[in-house]
Design goal:
386 residues, alpha+beta, Glutamine Phosphoribosylpyrophosphate, subunit 1, domain 1, eight-stranded mixed β-sheet, binds aspartic acid
């Protein structure tokens, strides 16, 4: 895939303390031979030049390209790395057109948007998170307040909303017209034996259907609603400074149409987000339950501590997901039971600036700002998409 370039960030390359120095300082000697072997990911079908990158760097899920530029720009202005990524992620949370995060995120099965987010700050090894947060469009900023202003790691539901309001966040409706329509279409398509009528069950109108003046196009329109299947999406963003300080953040509206109160991997430290200032950071997007039961982000960071390259650490974590999650028959692809029927992506950033990403299926990408340019790069993968 051709990398997409954005304008150069203001942040330049700087001298960097090697992660190997730091890892060695922990008494863990990296296995350089393994690291060297694994810079080309197995079955990846793409080179992994990120494993050789050195210096300040920011990576994100593919929807977070703008987040990386913003984060590196703020880093150049001297901000704490956690603030840099949270402000980067904020751009995606504010974007009504990204229906997987923040404002405009697809709602739960009751039609209500519930957001999850976490932030981890390497220098203090402190985390903050919120889950099932309603009516506040920047959950990552609230998570950072949990990190900085409380003795807790995770606040959920009504408590999270109360905390956010107390911290000065404004309550607002997070459901955009597009997300509301998608929810109505999904709800109407759920069953032919309830009181919600799908297109096939309704009679054709005898004329035009009234459109409320000044409404957004399609508002209240009740024809031609296409059912929207379950939908995933999240933004993850990690950063390492030229001094080797790391922070990581993950923010999401979670799986669309989820059971109210369902919490995914994004606010769970060790699952959808983790960082260790001596080693590196990792995050996940996609089916969160699979990242939770495999402790995905923690697993990747521990693999990097043993000297495995970021890309290979992500691939090994993907292997662990395949091994464990295929034990449940509902996760096996009916056409090929050796493959899962869901997708999951992992991202890794090492203390020296090396980075990588891997997905279950080919075609995945992620965003990177390497200190000079923000671009979208291909991710390694375990299975060729059929
Ligand atoms: N990981 C998120 C969750 O499970 C969703 C996603 O990334 O698509 O809540």
């Amino acid at each position: 895939m051709k990398p997409m370039k954005t304008s150069n960030g203001s942040f330049g390359r700087r001298k960097f303390i090697s992660s190997f120095t730091a890892v060695a300082g922990l008494g863990m000697t990296p296995d350089l031979s393994l690291s060297a072997q694994t810079t080309q990911p197995r079955k990846a079908g793409v080179a992994a030049p990120g494993d050789n990158h050195k210096g300040a760097c920011c990576i994100a899920s593919a929807n977070g390209l703008r987040a990386t530029s913003r984060a590196m720009g703020l880093l150049g202005q001297g901000y704490d790395p956690a603030d840099c990524i949270v402000q980067g992620v904020r751009i995606i949370e504010d974007d009504p057109n990204d229906n997987s995060v923040g404002y405009g995120g697809l709602p739960n099965e009751d039609g209500i948007v519930e957001l999850d987010a976490s932030v981890m700050h390497g220098p203090t090894h402190k985390s903050g998170a919120v889950a099932s947060l309603r009516n506040i469009k920047n959950p990552a900023m609230v998570a950072l307040e949990v990190l900085r202003r409380t003795n807790h790691c995770l606040i959920v539901g009504e408590g999270a909303l109360k905390f956010a309001v107390r911290m000065g966040f404004k309550e607002e409706n997070l459901l955009t017209e597009a997300s509301r329509r998608d929810w109505v279409a999904w709800r109407a398509s759920m069953s032919g034996i309830d009181d919600w009528l799908n297109d096939e069950q309704r009679d054709a109108p005898s004329g035009k259907i009234w459109q409320e003046p000044n409404s957004e196009p399609g508002k209240r329109a009740s024809v031609n609603l296409q059912p929207v299947p379950y939908h995933t999406g999240t933004v993850h963003c990690s950063i390492v400074t030229s001094q080797g300080d790391i922070s990581s953040c993950t923010s999401t509206s979670g799986l669309s149409w989820k059971i109210p109160g369902r919490v995914g991997d994004s606010p769970i430290i060790g699952a959808g987000n983790y960082c260790d200032n001596d080693i590196g950071a990792a995050g996940a997007t996609g089916r969160g339950e699979s990242a939770i039961v495999t402790c995905g982000a923690f697993d990747i960071v521990q693999r990097m501590a043993k000297g495995v390259s970021p890309t290979e650490a992500c691939l090994e974590a993907i292997d662990s997901v395949v091994k464990h999650c295929l034990k449940e028959k509902r996760h096996r692809d009916p056409k090929d039971p050796s493959r899962p029927d869901f997708d999951l992506k992992f991202y890794a950033l090492r203390k020296d600036g090396a980075f990588g990403g891997a997905t279950l299926f080919s075609g995945g990408t992620f965003a990177v700002h390497d200190g000079q340019t923000a671009s979208i790069v291909p991710a390694a993968y375990r299975f060729e998409k059929k």
